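Lab notebook, bench 4. The sequencing result for the construct came back, and we need a structural model before the next group meeting so we can plan mutations. Quick request posted to the team channel:

Model the 3D structure of this chain.
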Amino acid sequence: MPLSYPRPHRPNPARRLAAAVTTALLTAGILVGCSGDDGPQRTVDAFLAGWRSGDLQAVGVIDPLGSKLPSADVSREIKELSGELAATPPTLTRRGEPKITKDIATTTVQVEWTLPGQTRWAYDREVRLAHGDDDQWQVIWEPKVVQEQLAKGDRLALRRDAGARAGVLDNAGKPIVTPRPVVRVGVQPNGVADIKELVKDLDAAFKAIRPALVPGVDLADLPERVAKAEPGAFVEVVSLREEAYRQIKPRIYDLPGTKFVSDKIDLAPTREFARALLGTVDPAQADDLAAHPDRYVVGDLVGHGGLQGRYDERLRGGPGLTVVVERPAEGGKLEPTGAELFRREPQPGQALKTTLDVAVQNAADGALRAESHRSALVALRISDGAVLAAANGPGPAGENLAFDAQVPPGSTFKMVSTLGLLDRGAVTLDGPVNCPKTFTVDGRSFKNSDNFELGSVPFRTDFAKSCNTAFAALAPKLGGDGLAAAGRTLGLEGQWDLGTDAFTGKVSTGGSPAEQAAASFGQGTTLVSPLAMAGATAAVARGRFEQPKLLIDPAPAKPAPAGEQLKPASVTALRTMMREVVTAGTGSALKDVPGEVYGKTGTAEYDNNPAHTHAWFVGWRGDVAFAVFVEKGGASTASAVPIAERFLRALPVG
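Done. Here's the predicted structure in token form:
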């Protein structure tokens, strides 16, 4: 049974409670409540459970003057006081046994809120109870039970301060994205003469920008936005880099109603700069908010796609959180009282350090700029495998063909076939290998580009001139798994860990004689990505496979181990042949490019129409290996090789 003082009859419970509250602690000693079933602790526990569940029906509640309160009203007030935190009720823990002074019991309760980002806000509160005439303990309710500084009508509110987003760094440790000048193009409604004509003129101007804006500027809602805006407002249309704005300034500057504001925005060096690999940073979108309501709020900047998306949490850091008190002002609008109950400082994000080289990336982007087909160019540093550039030509901004494409390699794969043949002693540089116009295997006829034939020539000539029929005839010497085995020595099909997704290839193995013949020159079921082919090319140049590297910090946890040294005689002969592709073969358009260029062209059929082909070129110069891919590019000499030339000429000879 609870300990209590004798209670004379008091017909007015409010007067009796008020007297007890004001005098008990002054006139009597403090006793600790017992743990009997009808003690105050049972009522406290029921109150805490009801606080969390929102149902206080099992608890008697009174105000400080002793008047009974409807439990539903108290539940509603707790929820209202909780404000923006109401959706995640606190964890409530009674600390020890209640202390009883006459008819008043006091217990300490720990209130622990879990704020966004698993932030903990904990504090202690006192809950008081009164022993009523019915021999039951009742909770004395007042707003400060929830938090000491709360009064009736107050609300807890949460303020978030975004942490400073960290940058993606280049191989020199400098931010790739920095503040760069832009011009914000807008419209002032009271200056517009004809909104339809203005939209037409702006649309034509934006479409004239080169390289083209991807995605384009959508002006469909501009008339409606202008109509709803204040007459003198600035209705923003688009922010253009200065260089893009200068292209069309003569066409838009004097259009009635147009206005222009100079500004700076965090941007990469160019619009194309490794855009698919890096991703973008944009205001939180509806699907971001729906998928992660505990992480993002309207106005947050969120990484989408590429490294920005994959490492968004690392880059964005942790938001600062402040719990404040709001109170209704005139008209009922909630306004801050100035009381700050809890604060967690924003945590800055952590940078990503990459191996990207700004000069090489700019050269790669520039080389693809004039290409109308989807295309990609990957460049690696041979000495350590560092990814220096990953460029993607026109197409959806988030599409990283450079790493993700799964396409046939065409005759660039003769580099792999040749390595396998040399390792097996099946060919030599000058050993004769016939190159007929056609070659038939199991009823399937293979031919060369433009139906050329060379007759019996040194194998190095077959390679330099890219003779398909010679390789089809040599395929049996590789055996069922020989091509795949040779590819694996160059890293193809490996388990690479670059810190982002990448396709490392799938090499044909164990197929029919016709499939083996097709696979020997990069057709059949073999699939690769430009990154995979750049890695294989670098392995030939280096003499050993080394997994391409993209991230320095954080370093990937499980990079593929380095391969064994390639056979010196085989790789020396292969390098000789790849040099002759440039000096006397299908890549001869590159022979006057400064420095010693090595390479292999490739034209890959991708459906049942021989006229439908992708174009390739793989090669190296100095310490830079690279792969060029042009989807539906036709002959490699017409598309891939010119891209390679533009790339190499933009780089200093190292």
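The CA atoms of residues 369 and 393 lie 7 Å apart.
Will bring this to the meeting.
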